[in-house]
Design a protein that fits this description.
The complex is a heterodimer. Chain A is built from twelve helices and six strands. By secondary structure, chain A is α/β, with parallel strands linked by helices. The longest helix of chain A has 17 residues. Chain B is built from ten helices and nine strands.
């Protein structure tokens, strides 16, 4: 009788990874850690992989076994308790695939969100009408109008993030395609969307850069992706990349670094934030 | 970002000093090639992580000293990858109306600064994409937001050791900047020296050179020469921890030697 568990929160993912690092640093094999807890090695693996919630008594015993200092143990336990709380987005579970639930969680925990958007205005900066048009165009075979409205509501709810007192820094590189291919034949959808983009581009916590066609090909022309950076120095960056039927979360140094390098090349080549505002204004007039 | 608008040459296949530095500071804006060199230098010279942190802290103290002296304009050359707190944060905490210009020759570094280093509403931050070896460009563009008839604090923190006496004419170069400054301006400098840890620094120099980055540690008299014609502020030219240390620096000093000299001087 297994209860279906919601997708892991970012806290569980990063704490699981930290737990693994601490075990390895202490020179313990998974089997040895499992023996201390009197559980199967798979249980330790599941905790490290965030496949199960972190059981606080287990965490305390493991950290003690690994020789972790008392203050770090306390901080870890506190974070684990917080990580085990379900997020606000769980109420959208009907339309939210597990892989996207983690995305929303990452978004809320990040200090810096850097993304490359080849096709659309990033979700966090979309107007409701624009979001609806994107969803309607993108949901092949999913005809339930209710579902689209739920998706739109979820997207709008996500945007509250940027109005938090201490919002993450959102740094987006958008391909010029986004401006060239309107999502709707109604001009006001794009006009309102560009107004919103221009408003947000004025905020301190938002940086928008357009990769212009005139720059030629750039190293990001594969797929959209997002890199999350967390405030805590010990947490690694994570990369999220989406495909038609799912998504990948990458956290190995090699893969994260490859994405970071591509973003850095793109950011250096794309129009500066200042010039991007001029470009957006010009497109705004044309629509 | 102002400066050259031509498509920048970007080579991330080789280590870059700013990203190596970022790794030492515990940052995440570096790539495996940078990490590899950073680790190798750290293995050869155990002082580098302490040195990088000490340079950052010196910058904070020197900027606070400049602010106390009434300076409200800053020109920082060789800014590097943003690391909190950044220069404008320190300056604007002391005086929110402070105006800061950051200059760096690396387009990636500059874009990071541009995206993440945001001014208070009262002050300003600007970003120049230009090389320290091109003072005409830097001074011209800095003049768009700074008033050179008023005092400016010019900072080159941990930068001059990448510049050579001959090939870059580092002394002549610095003079060209200082000549443009109004009386009451400050020069803030720190750089690596062979005096305090000769073996480690020699190895670091060799590793940097092998990766294509010439490295020029300087002795006390050589470093002192940068301040010729200026009035050194107390305590003069000194190992970096000793420059007006705060309690945290005194603690850090106990961790061991840092082969870096620092000094701040006023133009009279």
């Amino acid at each position: 009788m297994s209860e279906r568990r919601p997708a892991p929160t970012v806290g569980q993912v990063v704490l699981g990874k930290r737990l693994q690092e601490l075990r390895e640093a202490a020179g313990f094999k998974r089997e040895e850690a499992a023996r201390v807890l009197r559980v199967a090695p798979a249980t330790v693996r599941r905790m490290e992989m965030a496949e199960v919630a972190l059981k606080i008594p287990y965490v305390q015993v493991l950290l003690e076994t690994y020789g972790v200092a008392e203050d770090e143990t306390e901080a870890f336990v506190q974070l684990a308790e917080e990580a085990n709380q379900p997020g606000w987005w769980q109420r959208f579970h009907d339309v939210l695939p597990d892989w996207f639930s983690l995305y929303v969680s990452l978004e809320g925990a990040a200090g810096i969100i850097r993304s490359y958007e080849p096709h659309f205005v990033p979700g966090l900066l979309q107007t409701e009408e624009y979001a609806r048009a994107v969803m309607e165009a993108g949901t092949v075979g999913q005809t339930e109008p209710g579902a689209i409205e739920r998706h739109v509501s979820l997207r709008m709810a996500r945007q509250k993030l940027l109005d938090r007192p201490d919002p993450p820094h959102l740094w987006v590189i958008m391909d010029e395609t986004v401006l060239k291919r309107p999502v709707s034949i109604r001009g006001e959808v794009m006009r309102d969307q560009l107004d919103k983009l221009l408003d947000f581009a004025e905020r301190d916590g938002v940086t928008v850069q357009v990769a212009e066609f005139s720059d030629g090909p750039h190293p990001g022309t594969y797929a959209p992706f997002t890199l999350f950076r967390f405030g805590e120095p010990e947490l690694p960056d994570m990369v999220f990349t989406e495909y038609l039927t799912g998504a990948l979360y990458l956290d190995s140094r090699t893969e994260v670094s490859a994405h970071l390098e591509v973003l850095d090349h793109m950011t250096a080549r794309a129009a500066s934030a200042q010039r991007t505002k001029k470009i957006l204004r010009k497109y705004r007039e044309d629509f | 970002m102002t400066g050259s608008d031509a498509a920048p040459q970007i080579d991330t296949s080789r280590p870059h000093s700013a990203r190596v530095y970022d790794w030492w500071l515990g940052g995440k804006d570096n790539y495996p090639v940078d990490e590899e060199l950073a680790r190798r230098i750290l293995a050869a010279d155990g002082t580098v992580v302490r040195g990088a942190r000490a340079n950052r802290r010196f910058m904070h103290r020197a900027v606070r000293a400049a602010a106390e002296a009434g300076i409200r304009q800053y020109l920082d050359i060789g800014t590097g990858i943003p690391t909190e707190p950044n220069l404008h944060q320190v300056a604007q905490q002391a005086a929110p109306e402070s105006r800061v210009v950051y200059a760096d020759n690396d387009p990636i570094v500059l874009r990071h600064a541009e995206a993440l280093l945001k001014s208070t509403p009262e002050g300003s931050t600007d970003y120049i994409h230009a090389d320290v070896r091109d003072p005409d460009t830097i001074l011209r563009l800095a003049g768009e937001s700074l008033d050179f008839s008023q005092p400016i604090a010019l900072s080159l923190v941990a930068l001059t050791h990448y510049l050579g006496d001959e090939e870059d004419d580092v002394y002549g170069l610095l003079k060209r900047y200082v000549d443009k400054l109004a009386p009451g301006s400050c020069l803030i400098l720190s750089q690596v020296t062979p005096d305090l840890a000769p073996e480690g620094v020699a190895k670091a120099k060799e590793l940097f050179a092998r990766s294509g980055t010439p490295f020029h540690p300087r002795t006390l008299p050589e470093f002192y020469r940068f301040f010729e014609g200026l009035e050194l502020l107390g305590p003069g030219v000194i190992p970096v921890y000793g420059w007006r240390p705060e309690p945290v620096d005194v603690e850090a000093q106990a961790e061991g030697v840092v082969p870096v000299y620092a000094g701040v001087a006023r133009k009279v």
